Amino acid sequence: MARVVVVGAGVVGLTCAVRLLEEGHRVDLLARDLPLESTSAVAAALWYPYLSLPRERVLNWGAASYAEFVALAGEPETGVRMVTGTEVHRSRTPDPWWRDAVPSLDRETALPEGYRDGWTFVTPVVEMPLYLRWLLGRVDALGGTLTRMNLSALPTGADLVVNCSGLGARLLGQDRTVVPVRGQVLLVEQVGLDRWYLDGEVPTYVVPRSRDIVVGGTEQAGEWSRTPDPATAADILARARRLVPELAGARVLRHKVGLRPVRPALRVERVDYVVHCYGHGGAGVTLSWGTAEEVVSLVG
Ligand SMILES: Cc1cc2nc3c(=O)[nH]c(=O)nc-3n(C[C@H](O)[C@H](O)[C@H](O)COP(=O)(O)OP(=O)(O)OC[C@H]3O[C@@H](n4cnc5c(N)ncnc54)[C@H](O)[C@@H]3O)c2cc1C
Asked: How many angstroms separate the alpha carbon of residue 11 from the centre of ligand 1?
């Protein structure tokens, strides 16, 4: 069994660490940001393939992760729930390219005003603050460690390094093809909503969790600011209220921003003693178990 250093403690690094530990490897995580400080903590987080390529591999990674989340939804402490919701479109739209990754998808006829098409399906909703804590608990229980460290290069000295540094791969993988796509969200109070809604065009999404509702969003390529913009927040809220009128009186609790690590093609590849696993774009949660499985096979 190998001594593996995993760089990064977002959803990708933690999931890889869990799977490697389950295979019997020794695993130590190094990360500048702890799990609840990472981009992953900002995610909505709906299982949904978004801003991530290439499609054939994303389909396989997504399907594998969906199956794992179905199993985790049986354990309330994970923060994973299977939730029904609707994706809406303003014009007639063919089935999505990832159709085969979900067990069923039904055309929706009861659409909000202004929409002409849509589909309803059951998908995992992952409450990230709970889930990241649960993943970290798994790492700990399996004998892994996490140390805060701001690295200027990938470490040497271990048998293998797994690079799950997300946007940090611009430096650690010397990879300028990973770019930020800024996402701003609001957390509003739970007003009894139990379905999610998504209009991918703008994008606008409303994702209910146990104690709040995540309302988004934006897709701003090349934008590095992590400061919430008040005008953007007002625009998001107005869009979300048009989509889901029940939000009309919901109090705003918090504003958050995350920088999605988008790459022309998600990188899962072994180069010598380094296994790279980064560039999950807007689907890091959605693909996490699938890419971790591939990392396990590359570690060998
Ligand atoms: C608003 C928003 C909504 C989203 N919604 C969804 C959704 O509904 N579903 C979904 O699947 N995905 C969603 N995403 C995308 C998802 O959040 C990302 O794909 C995911 O977080 C990427 O995970 P990661 O572990 O690769 O990166 P990160 O979470 O960014 O973690 C990277 C880790 O690497 C570490 N690191 C980086 N550089 C260094 C360094 N030099 N030294 C040491 N450590 C370093 C960081 O500190 C961190 O620990 C959303 C994102 C945003 C912003």
From this structure: 7
Which residue, among 135, 131, 128, has the nearest Cα to 256 in the 3D structure?
128
Instruction: Using alpha carbons, select from 54, 51, 58, 66 the residue that is nearest to residue 260.
Output: 51
User: Distance (Å, rounded) from C-alpha 60 to C-alpha 82?
Assistant: 20
Q: What are the tens digits of pLDDT across the range 128-161?
A: 999 999 999 999 999 999 999 999 999 998 899 9
Q: What is the pLDDT of residues 12-70, one digit of tens each?
A: 999 999 999 999 999 999 999 999 999 999 999 999 999 999 999 999 999 999 999 99
Q: Which residues line ligand 1 (CB under 6 A)?
A: 7-13, 30-33, 38-40, 42-46, 48, 149-151, 164-168, 171-172, 183, 185, 216-217, 258, 260-261, 278, 280-286
Peptide bond into 217 cis (omega under 30): yes
- Separation of alpha carbons 173 and 271, rounded Å: 11
Domain ranges across the chain: 3-299
Kindly give the number of the ligand 1 atom that is closest to the alpha carbon of 52: 19
Provide the CATH topology of domain 3-299.
Rossmann fold (3.40.50)
